[in-house]
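All the exercises in this workshop are built on plain-text protein records. The record below serves as our worked example for the rest of this section.
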Amino acid sequence: RMLTGLFGTAMTTASSRRELVYRRSCDGGVAIANKLALSRSKAGKSYLICKVVCAGLNPVDAKYLMGDKLPQWIDNIIGRRSVEGFGVGFDFAGIVEYAPEDCQYKVGDHVFGTTDIGTASVADTCYVPLHQVASKPESLTFAEAAALPLVGLTALQALKPHCVEGTSVLVIGASGGVGHVAMQVAKSLGAVVTAICGPREGMALVKSIGCASPQNIVDYVNDDVKESLLKIVSGDGDQKLFDICFDTVTSSNESDAAAGYPHLITKDGDLLSENGIYITIGGTCFSWIRAGVKRIIGLNLFPKNKELFWIRFPHSSRELLQLSKFANEKSLKPKVSREILFQDEAAIQAAMKDLLGRRVKGKLVVRVAPDPDI
């Protein structure tokens, strides 16, 4: 049975909860399902149970968890079937409802972090591993905090090993979910940032964030990208060849790869520094195999100066704390472009299509419950 709450949502009874799940037969590939309430005994000593206030949506959620790790024909046949019924979402911000004894959290604490794969953050409540959670940044709303974990961890884990004070970082796709946060993380780490983004809304967002000076922002539609970048690296001032190119656009998808950024940036050796590195977060199946080998056994099979980055969720609490520190220092704030109410299944399904079509600037967030102070 379902009850109607004051917030206008359908609230579950004590023995059930709502959860967004993968369902191939539904528009957008997802649907809201009723599930059993979470069990404290199952949470045990390793998990929190949290009431979700907001949950973030990411392109990987719209790509059935696999992203571009499988060839499209295999993903269509096997990949999507393999996650049928799994929960949707990783990112969340919420309130602790159950905490094991002798852990640092207590009931009522405000936290943010990530759930285990396939267990759903887009839900009334969620299990959260203790090593994948941190106290919510006081400076961020629940919606902003829910938008941060996946994109923030991606940026921090990818950039920090290569980034020191004065490092020159080029961010491609700077107005997207990962890109706009990557700019802020890079600047917080002491980097000098250059951004490539689209016109109008994309340019406005990048300029509003203020991480790149106006002369270091390139409009990929109206500017000659290569000539603009050459002017930036050869101009007066502190700018130099790029030490890091962080490409959030390129993937195995034909439309994503059409811009040819890896070739454009690296072919002539006039944009990347001698020890510079070109990092992508999307690629072919073979590239993901190489990324997996590097991640699991530490063997780097990538060509010199190139890498496909694969995010790591386990044991990320310390990195979430660093992101929280940046946020509380006012140097990091994700842009929430749209909040979607959890009960509006059609709007969530449409949002999944928007994510697949790269029509989103900033981040999309699902509003599951009202902020506790409302």
Confidence is low (pLDDT under 50) at residues 1-13. The longest strand covers residues 47-57. Residues 285-297 form the longest helix (13 residues).
